[in-house]
Design brief:
Number of strands: 11
Strand order of the largest sheet: 6-8-9-11-10
Largest sheet: 5 strands, mixed
Radius of gyration: 40 Å
Strand content: 15-25%
Distance between the termini: 42 Å
């Protein structure tokens, strides 16, 4: 049960990591939005000062400090501004990039081309003058009403500066960069982890095959010796069977890490052959029922490796039922894929563990390394271009594993 908690802890760790990431993203967005709001307020205050200077300049007498008022107005070189009268006549404009701007000069509104004039009127948001400017000033914080004389008003419309607009996009750019960076790091870690696992799998398999080679050769020699000395033929025959079985196991392990030779095989024949071997080596209280399709299909596979897959699935099913129950093996075809389904009447698997069962080390047994289904998945998907997954499962009822292979 301890190995189960490893993946539970991993799942909890992912949730914690996701929660921390979301909190960090929200914090960054809030800080950035507050910064943008603060800058927007500063621009609003600057435009209020600009409007006051415009008003005082219009009402100024001969003794007024014209240079100071003009300097305030001239200092605005970043915020786009339009000054209009009550009839939507634009009196002045600043810091707009006009469609037909050919130089840095700023002629009066009447001297502009028709296209430029229409452009500025649209920016004023009242091309037809259907809404009075004082109403727009009351409803929109980008409009400021300026009293020039008694019952005479001008209206200042301004937009966010280029800097403010860029800063408003900054949180989203930052978020995109963070997501891309996290994704790259995640993929790099996953790739490195898989590459390391592959090296471990290959090294372990090759070493296992190598270590089995010596005792197998020795057992073969002893079997021949016993036969020559007149030992019971039934005994030597059983020894030969086990030696051949060990040779098959060693051959399977030797194929891990290198592309196996795939031959045209028919599923019914391969499935029946692998189960015939297992029937004599499992509990008599387990009933194995085969439901083989009449329309058998040819597929490309490595017979030794695929028989290993069937044996692993059968053993797992027997363990899940504690040696007492029913196993149903079904073959068939769905569109361009041949399938094999292995159904048991065992303990079942929780839905959250449908994918976890294929991870190295996952097991519910008190002993064992939890590598069987990991090898099965590798053999089916990496070597045969197929797919294996938990089709259905219900705790206390049973589980169905499904293998899909491309039909020739």
């Amino acid at each position: 049960m301890k190995r189960l908690s490893i993946y539970d802890n991993q799942r909890t760790g992912k949730i914690i990591f996701l929660s921390i990431s979301l909190v960090a993203i929200v914090a960054v967005m809030l800080i950035s939005n507050n910064l943008v709001k603060a800058l927007s307020q500063q621009e609003r205050e600057r435009m209020n000062i600009w409007a006051q200077a415009t008003e005082r300049l219009a009402k100024a007498d001969a003794d007024a400090d014209f240079e100071f008022l003009l300097s305030i107005i001239e200092q605005n070189n970043s915020i786009p501004v339009l000054v209009a009268d009550e009839d939507f006549n634009i009196l002045e404009y600043r810091n707009f990039k006009l469609p037909e701007d050919k130089d840095d000069s700023q002629p009066g509104f009447e001297q502009l081309s028709e296209r430029n004039r229409q452009y500025l009127l649209k920016r004023l948001k009242a091309p037809g003058g259907e809404t009075p400017l004082h109403e727009m000033a009351r409803r929109n914080d980008h409009f400021i009403e300026v009293a020039i004389f008694d019952n005479t008003y001008q209206y200042i419309y301004y937009e966010d500066s280029i800097l403010l607009r860029r800063l408003s996009w900054y949180p989203y750019v930052q978020l995109a960069v963070m997501v891309i960076l996290v994704l790259i790091i995640y993929l790099a870690v996953i790739y490195t982890k898989r590459a390391e696992q592959d090296r471990v799998w290959v090294g372990l398999s090759k070493e296992t095959a190598h270590q089995l080679g010596t005792p197998i050769s020795s057992l073969m020699a002893w079997s021949q010796y016993l036969e020559l000395t007149g030992a019971d033929k039934e005994v030597t025959s059983e020894i030969d069977k086990d030696v051949k079985r060990l040779s098959v196991i060693a051959d399977r392990f030797s194929k891990i890490g290198s592309a196996p030779e795939l031959n045209v095989e028919y599923l019914n024949d391969v499935v029946a052959n692998s189960l015939d071997y297992m029937k004599n080596r499992i509990s008599g209280r387990v009933a194995i029922n085969m439901h083989l399709t009449d329309d058998d299909h040819g597929v490309r596979l490595s017979r030794p490796l695929f028989e290993w897959v069937m044996e692993n699935l059968t053993k797992n099913a027997v363990d899940a039922m504690d040696g007492d129950g029913r196993i149903d093996i079904t073959t068939g075809a769905d569109k361009n894929m041949a399938f094999i389904e292995v159904t048991d009447s065992g303990k079942g698997i929780a839905r959250k563990n449908f994918k976890t069962v294929f991870n190295p080390g996952y097991t519910t047994k008190k002993r064992g390394w939890g590598l069987g289904l990991t090898l099965v998945k590798r053999i089916i998907e990496d070597y045969h271009g197929g797919r294996i997954f938990v089709k259905s499962s219900e705790p206390g009822v049973g589980t169905t594993f499904r293998i899909e292979l491309p039909i020739l």
